[in-house]
Amino acid sequence: MQSKTSFFNRTVFLHDLKRWWPLTAGYALIWLLAMPLGWLTELNHDPYLSAWNVQFDALDIAGNAGYWSAFLTGILFAMAAFSYLTNPRATYGLHALPERRETLYVTHYLAGLCSQLAPQLLTVLLTMAVLAAHGAFSARLLGLMLLAFVLPTLFFYSFGVFCMMFTGQILAAPVFYGALNVLVVGVELLIRTFAGNFLYGWAENIEPVLTPFSPIVKLVENGVRATQDTYEVLENGVIRVEGTQELQLLGLDWLLIYAAAGLVFAALGLLVYRKRHSEATGSTVAIDWARPIFKYGVTFCAALALGQLLYFLFFGQFRSNGSYSLPGTLGCMALSGLLGYFVAEMLLKKSFRVWKSGWRGAVAVVAVLVVMGCGMSLDLTGYESYVPNQNDVQAATVQMNVYNSSAHTYLFGIRDPETIRLIIEAHRAIVSDKERQLRLNDSAQPWDYTETGAVGGYFSVDYTLSDGRVVRRRYSDVTIFADELGDPASLAGALTALNNSETAMFARALGCDYYNGDTDPRALPDLRFTGGDAYVYDNDAYREASRTLTAHEAELIYDAVLRDVAAGHVGGSLFESESILNGSVTLYATYSAPDRPADRGVSDTYPSEVPPGRDMVTYDLEITERMTETVATLRAMDVDVTFG
Fold first, then answer.
1. Distance from CA of residue 441 to its chain's centroid?
2. Residue 499: enclosing H or E segment and its boundaries?
3. pTM, to two decimals
């Protein structure tokens, strides 16, 4: 008789199902109470719910709860399926059977997977039966609910099985599983924080880029829920949302990606299982080549996490962004790294006597951490000193504010070469003044220009380079000295030049605190003013007045603003505060926009309908006492202008 290779053992499969039936039953009971019984109660209480709302809410529950349930229970079923690998007698007994490793692995894997999928299938079918009794059955809903359950289960269970292959301790499996699910994004954030301690100008508020490698974090961030919208990312990064009449499962793309990754982890788990030694049962890390990865991984994470916590508590509560204690940082990280190293060594050796065998590795760990810290402090990467060339900058965004004065500049997406040059010059001046700025920050001096001739502020800049890269810098505490205003190369001179640039003055005058260079009103095609509103009040006389501006009056005011900008009436010193209009002046305009959707509708605050092929824009003017042209124009219109 010809023999054949089998990857499945029916007896072992049925034995597994019987062995952990309480876990399967409890899992099924939770879902049955949450979905079919929950909807039966809801629909009996309110039988007039629309079919659409019922379907939407049912999918929403499945989407939100599906991946969380898979995350929490995936490791439990993986531990149940391969718990014999943590018991020496069970391991030797099963491995003594006349069955190939592949057969045992596939059989146990399928038993654990079916123990989750069967309750999920039963839950979905019973839920659909309840919905069908109330006229809310949908084949599309049935398919989407099954996907919301099955796809995350396939990934998290497979990943849990993969983690089980690396340990011979039952309690180590959930630790590995939980840590690896968030490890990548956690380490990225720790490294960013570490860099922020050393690097002057570090932009700490950048979102993590490695989130997809931390599955549960990515699914929480992205969301898995019901929707009737479709989302499309355009070439310029804009997300276009279009409504549909069909149910959609937001996050289905990521569920499919992770399900495919789950199949890969299942295959990798089999490869590891084939090479795993039975004698490794009881070891924290059962695979030889993974032991150094575990040891130095724990060391590195302990140095970053615990080391930074100790540094913050003892040295760094009032330090950041290039202001740091190098001995304090190195000491805390070395101490934490050593602690992590010897804890990992004890877990691997299963003994407290690890100094004799581990001191060489401990010395190497400390040396690496010291080199890392010193290398960062010397700015070997050139991060702190880097300022892009103007020819490489496609667009720039800058936010600058000077405390105790009215000087502020918020410019987004600027493409004007002259303004970009001024932004780069201001950035270069801050970099050149780094050492003095850090000394001033360390002194914790409350710089008040009324007494010291200096004033504090902040400066941040984002560059979009021609190759698509984005360079970000943040300087949260900069000090500017009044006696350096006459020096164009100084920080005070460079920031003054930027603050008094035509673009910055124009943005402030029109109230464009978030001025976008792509929608510069001076460049909008066929700009036409349609009217406006003026509201003013007088605190001394206890009176207020408001009036509607005609299209002609709005255009006259806009022309007056342009004259004030040209005359430099909107700029000024970084050390002065200007009186601002008591009240508000708002101008309405439209411009040519052939691609404007015809069904956009009319804004609640806009005074008239927007004609087809045009779009609207609103300007909330910021009028100061120095804007003589604008003030004179308003008073000629009998607008009682007062300043406070």
1. 29
2. helix 491-499
3. 0.76
